[in-house]
Amino acid sequence: MLEKGIAVIGSTTIDKNIYDNKNQLKIGGVTTYSGITYRRHGIVTRIVTNVAKQDLPILDKLDQEQITIQGGPTTQTTQFINIFIGDQRRQKLPSTASPIKASQIKPLRDAVGCVHLGPLHPLDIESDCINLLKEAKLPVFLDIQGYTRRIENAEVNTEVANQIEASLKISRIVKANESEFESVLQYFGTDLANLLARYNIEEFIVTQGKKGGFVLDDKNSQVRFNAVPVQSPGDPTGAGDIFFAAYIIGRFMKKLDISNACAYAADLTALQISGNYITEDLLGLSAVGESDKINKNLN
Questions:
Q1: 10 within 8 A of 120, measured Cβ to Cβ
Q2: Residues of the chain with pLDDT > 70: what percent?
Q3: R_g over Cα of the chain
Q4: Is the Cα torsion angle 205, 211, 212, 215 positive or negative in sign?
Q5: Predicted confidence band of residue 293 (pLDDT cuts 50, 70, 90)
Q6: CATH number, domain 2-282, options 3.30.365.10, 2.40.30.10, 3.40.1190.20, 3.20.20.70
Q7: Contact predicate 32/283, CB 8 Å
Q8: In the structure, what pLDDT confidence band is assigned to residue 158 with cuts at 50, 70 and 90?
């Protein structure tokens, strides 16, 4: 699978991260954090994403990493505001790009060996894309975060969207954080083992922040993993995306078992949170030239 390359599908974002004592303006999204992680492991990586013409310079950062970009037309770029208070995060979504269309994915069906699906909100990826991936029979790795969000007046709230079911049906490995996982089980009215059986999911990863997390496989075997402590507090944005990509790399490139793949992913995630993996000088948007304008739009 990974030998042929991977397509990461979802929005590339402009993120404004607000902390007690500082604000950061960064490029973000699954395409950024997971995409760079795959590419830095020598995997041919293509991203399918929509960025507005005026914001195209942010994609130069992904081009620097030798990631191939399959873009489409949009008048807006997806923009997130992440407000951190302690370990809690509140999110706003003031603008969204046009949905990713099947016509953008179609040329990649024979060019990659697998797909990392990372919608950031329920309408990020058109349903025709899911149908196309089902027909292509490519292995799909799904991060469900976007399907557990309801956007109302630019506020991001927790609510499972009905689009999740079609994506679960085509997915081999699924990842969620703890709150997303709990919302999904409540939505389907079942436990995790039955959810795996219903949708033929092979492995379901649940990340639980500083508590680590666990993986349940289709044999109903659960493997817990520990988070790697970080000495100084850092930026957790994108940590889940990096964990998921690193886990996939561990399982299918490094041929690790679930426990060791989790350990590898936890190590890389800790490196990111400590500021030593995908660093501020790459992610920061101060050099783009549009940062003042972007910052004004996000206020």
A1: yes
A2: 94
A3: 18
A4: negative
A5: very low
A6: 3.40.1190.20
A7: yes
A8: very high
